[in-house]
C-alpha cells in the first residue's frame, strides 16, 4: 500500500496579490450567506403560507356559516295543518323539525315487546309510554317485591308470636287444670292445719 501525501498551502492574508485567497474566501462566505438566506426565506415563506391559510380558512368558514345561517333562517317549508280546510302554513326549518319531532313523540310506534313497528294496529306505545312502562315497571316490580317480602316476613312473625302466646296460654290453663291447683291448695291447707294441730 502506498501513501500519498498532498499538501496545499493557501495564504488567506496575501495582501499583495489578492488573487486565489480572496476568491476562495469570498466564495465560501457567499456560499454560507446563500445557504442562510435560503433557509431563512423558506422559514419565512412557510410561516407566511400557514398564516395566510389560517386566515383564508377562517374567512371562508365565517362566510359559509353566515350564508348558511341566513339561508336556513329564510327557508320556509310548506306544512299541512291537517285541518278540514286545506290550509298550508309556511314554517321555518327549526319549527318544522320541532313539529315533526313532537308528532313522532305522540305517535305509537312500539309494540308490547319494544320493537318498532310500522303497522298502526300492532303499535301500542309511544316512545315516552314505552320507556316509562319499562323503567317504572321495573322499579315498581322491584319495590312491590320488596314490599311483599317485607309484609310476608311481618305476617309470619305476627302469626308465630300469636301462636306462641296462644299455646302458652292454653298450655298454662291445661297444666293448671291437670294439676288441679285449687284442690292441691285445699289439700295443702288441710295438711298445714293438721300439722298445726299436731304441733300444739
Task: Please describe what this structure looks like.
There is one protein chain. The chain has 200 residues and is mostly helical. Among the domains are: 22-74; 76-151, no CATH class. The protein has helices spanning 20-74, 93-106, 127-179, 181-199, and strands at residues 76-80, 88-92. It has a two-stranded antiparallel ribbon. The longest helix is centred in the N-terminal third of the chain and has 55 residues, at 20-74. The model has no long low-confidence stretch (mean pLDDT 80).
Q: Which features characterize this protein?
A:
4 helices, two-stranded antiparallel ribbon, 2 strands, mainly alpha
Number of strands: 2
What pattern of helices and strands is seen along the backbone? HEEHHH
- State the strand order across the main sheet: 1-2
User: How big a fraction of the residues is strand?
Assistant: 5-15%
What's the number of helices?
Answer: 4
Helix content: over 70%
Give the overall silhouette.
elongated
Low-confidence stretches: none
Major sheet: 2 strands, antiparallel
Roughly how many Å is the radius of gyration? 54 Å
The end-to-end span amounts to 158 Å
Mean pLDDT across every amino acid position: 80
